[in-house]
Amino acid sequence: MSEALDAMVAERAESIRMIRDSAAGIAPRGGDRKRVRALRFQPPGFDRGVWQQIGEQGWIGLHVPEEQGGAGLGLSEFCAIAEEMGAALASEPLVPGALSAALLAAAGAEAPLAKLLAGESYVVTAWQEAPGVLEAPGNEGAPRRFLPLAGGADAFLVPVREGGKLALYLQPAEGADLTLEKTQDGGFFGTLRPQGGERVLEDAAAVLEVALDEAALGTAAYLLGVMDQAFALTLDYLRTRQQFNRPIGSFQALQHRAADLKIQLALSRASVESAAALLDTPGAPQAMRRAAVSRAKARASEAAMLITRQAIQLHGGIGYTDEADIGLYLRKAMVMANQFGPAALHRRRFADEAREEEA
Amino acid sequence: MTDLNALSDADFRAEVRRFLEAEYPPGLRNPPHRLHMDEGRPWFEKLKARGWVAPGWPREHGGLGLDAAKQIALIEEYERHGVARLPDHGVIMLGPLLIRFGTEEQRQRFLPKILSGEHVWCQGYSEPGAGSDLASLRTEAVLEGDHYVVNGQKIWTTLATDANWIFCLVRTDKSGKKQEGISFLLIDMTSPGVTVRPIINLGLHDEFCEVFFDNVRVPRENLVGEPNKGWSMAKALLGFERIFLGSPRQSGYALGRLKLLAERMGVFDDPDFQDRYTRLRLDLADHKALYETFVAVLRRGETLGPDVSMLKLHQSELFQRITELMLEIAGENAGLLEPMEGNRDLHPAGQFIEARPTTIYGGSSEIQRGILAKNVLELPG
């Protein structure tokens, strides 16, 4: 029994390793930072060609059931891909795309789902009405804000409160009232004033709640990749940069700081991977799942900011230049740390859910 | 002209405020980044007309001759009003150095042109391989007849694109201890062989530059003090830099912005935020009290010791902590490139980035901690 279980765990780990390896072609760890720079501040902020490759690899629908055209894999696999994309600083909107895929799958909207999964379109879920939240009030007509890379959207999924339910409308991007703001990482946030569209689901409340949690976890995984790679670059710098006739990494003060950062990185990885494993466990209680997601996102948001900030400090003056790549990781962390709930929100949520779980 | 030193502190401050209210260009209050000279020129002209370009210089050299306490009061009033910092290396760094170590000929040649604005100076100290370890600098000046021939590269030269003169630490002797072969040289940036390349910083602003010297010929009379004694002269000026960088100005300004942001985000009713905000307020209040004790040292006419490193260290890290809390409460606004809602005062990402280099420049936090451990606490090693 236990041997069979071990074999299953080993098989799963091997499949996750293979998925990571497959990421290297599109999102090489350490990244094609020239590509990242070329896309910065140029609408839509990502590469449609690469988006299509991501679709062809099956990543957008990784967690969508096979019978709906997805790969039917778990959150552990999805987080592995998200982490690799973070390490590569890939701008393509995997997490927001997967969020929309989950909703379109629940709605049974076959045609738009197929196009999205193939990377032929980008559908943005326009759920957010205020900064720093993780719930969709669905106020009709209220501007939907902070829509990631919305300039590249082909359609929007807009939740709208109708009676006691949260209906879901699919609105084409063409003719939409959309404004864009630049973000620190070279991308864009959109603000949409929703108008009409086709109602594709009568009540999306429950599925949206789960999908937003999965997006929060995916974002934590992406941040894990960002901090991991920023830390690797910083260790290289500590080993090679010479001052006072020795590598600066030989100074104990800096060694201790690097050791502390390593602990935060290890905690983040453990948190994200254990949360993903829990979400992949059938029958895990909802409160436990929500608590695990919040634990991972709170950790990853804080650790990503800490590590990328310290990465700049440890690089010294060169770290404060735009031409040094280390700054790209800080900028990415600044944009994503608060997406799908800032750390403080997730700590509050953890406290609430964990209490419920104990009760 | 009234003797400003004879005024009471309150009267002096009132005098400064009247001047600022009447003459300071309103559009230049609290600019989001360091001003270029052409942007700050209208304010410079007002200072010039009033004879206030160089508050700390003795009157015989065209300064205001303010005592240390009045200079601090002046800085505080400027900060209160949101007065922008001009490219001021000539006034703050070079002028005092020439007054103390220069020849009479050098003083007459250079000081009036700093006051008139004809010469705009920048500072060439750091090099790509000599940052925290400044004394390892390698830009070389070799004496050939009546000229030094300079070759090498400087980096992090603030606003070098605005300057027409640069004062440099250069290597004139490679034989002895690294600190002992450094000289202080004044270089006309219009000389053949000088190239300036702006560096875009993390705020996407071109505040810093690289300056390259390729066989630049510099008349030997442009060397200040004795050859190979430049290191100790430059070091004599660092104390001032540390009290300047240790002033509560940046943190005080940032805390005000945090308050505005917190009101906008509606987090003031959150007890956790209240506690964290209050901690930062207390840090700032205590920092001001500590800062005052250093000002009192100057007021007594004494010189500052190495413990002034505490000020720069604590101020810069407090500034950073304030801006980190801004990002935490700003939600997705933390990732915006431009200010929120078109309001320059609500720009958490911008403030956060602006705070990043303060623990790197002017002696990094690591260097300052080393100074405290070795020179103040006298720990072994």
Explain the overall architecture.
- The complex is a heterodimer of chains A (359) and B (381).
- With 359 residues, chain A is an alpha+beta fold.
- Helices cover 54% and strands 12% of the residues of chain A.
- Chain A is built from eleven helices and nine strands.
- A four-stranded mixed sheet of chain A has the order 1-3-4-7, with helices on one face. Chain A has a three-stranded antiparallel sheet with strand order 2-6-5, with no helix packed on it. A two-stranded antiparallel ribbon of chain A has the order 8-9.
- The longest helix of chain A is centred in the middle third of the chain and has 36 residues, at 205-240.
- Chain A is globular and about 70 Å long.
- The mean pLDDT of chain A is 95.
- Chain B is of the alpha+beta class and 381 residues long.
- In chain B, the strands form two sheets. A four-stranded mixed sheet of chain B has the order 1-4-5-8.
- In chain B, α1 packs parallel to α3 (68-81) and α10 runs antiparallel to α12.
- Chain B is globular, with a radius of gyration of 22 Å.
